[in-house]
Amino acid sequence: MAQRDLLTPGLEVTTSTGISSQVVTRIVTCARGVLRSKKVFGGDPDVYRLERWLESSEEDLLPMKRSADLLFGSGRYQCLGRSLALMALRKILSTLLFRYDLTLVDPTKPWKPAATNGTFMQSKMFTYENRAAREKYATE
Question: What is the C-alpha to C-alpha distance for residues 83 and 90, in angstroms, rounded to an integer?
């Protein structure tokens, strides 16, 4: 979460013990607010709809990408592990899709989302079958 502390010039606070200090205003980026912007993501930002990334024009896609990248921070405060994290996510996802056949546990109720820090967490959605094991037993 990106944050910044700003001093308010000329404004001091004195505590009951007589200690005085300048007032500091902490500004924090709200990831949930950024990732739920109707201006950026359209009229249904709370709906999990992957198609919005495919259907959007290049000019609409740019603010969406920038908003999603804010989770890693920006500028000199950017996460140093961003490239490594994105590479690991691509590797994990491609390996899972290559090795396993994923199917919905209950196609009538496929989505039980829980919003956590502006991102979706999912549980009890997929079941899987190991492709290598299936092919091994199919030939026996």
Answer: 11
49 contacts: CB under 8 Å, gap ≥ 6: none
- Please determine, for residue 74, whether its predicted confidence score (pLDDT) is greater than 80: no
Q: How far apart are CA 137 and CA 131, in angstroms?
A: 10
Backbone phi, psi, residue 99, to 5°: -85, -25
pLDDT digits 0-9 by tens, 8-48: 666 676 667 777 667 777 777 777 788 888 999 988 888 88
Q: What's the rounded Cα separation, in Å, for the pair 81 and 39?
A: 29
The C-alpha atoms of residue 113 and residue 123 are separated, in whole angstroms, by 8
